[in-house]
Amino acid sequence: LRSTKFHDVDRSIIVLADDSLSMDIADKYSDRTLLQGLADFLHSGPETLESTRRYDIVRRVFRDPEIGLLEKLRKKGKVSVYSFGGALRRQKQIPRRKEGDPPLTDSEREVLPDYDGVRGEERVRETRISDALLDAVSGERSNERRAGPGGGDQRIAGIILLSDGQQTPGARPVDDVARRLGGQKIPVFSVGVGNPDDPEDIRVINLD
Predict the structure, then answer these.
(1) 14 Cβ neighbours under 8 A, 6+ residues apart
(2) pLDDT digits (tens, 9 = 90+) for 153-206
(3) What is the pLDDT of residue 132?
(4) Helices 174-183 and 129-147, interaxial angle, to 10°?
(5) Residue 150: is its pLDDT beyond 60?
(6) Once rounded to an integer, what is the mean pLDDT over residues 20-34?
């Protein structure tokens, strides 16, 4: 007697959006070709883009129905959106799109809060990308174990990281964590936000 069971596993895609204080910067771009390319992608003008904070650019990528980021991702699996600075915060989970499901509404694409409500939090004074990657994977696995059988590494299809890449000194190296996740078949796709030129102005935000 042979018995076969089929279990449908819904893979998840983790999206990590940096909301630390450096994401409150509106960049000026020396490379005008790069600026024009970004403006075209975001259906905006170069002047508008240079007056828009990095965080709000990320919000716009989620919200813009023409870019359709969340719609494209949820065709491949459920989407778990987190924000992070010194600590991780879960924002929203969007189920996988099934045949016949309607497109996401404006409110459903609103996955990140307004930055004015975030700026005063203590956790945004640091950026710990490595911790965010590991904590998000750990959190997704915990949710899967609670959801039922069939868990494991294969449930996480990949991680999309949206950040300016400015990590707090002393945090564990991002490369080491990315290689570790890659060994577990969890690829990390990083998307840089902001002007890639080295910053020329420094602001002291705290003196000890």
Answers:
(1) 80, 82, 136, 137, 140, 156, 158, 159, 160
(2) 448 999 999 999 888 887 788 999 999 999 999 999 999 999 888 767 677 888
(3) 95
(4) 30
(5) no
(6) 93
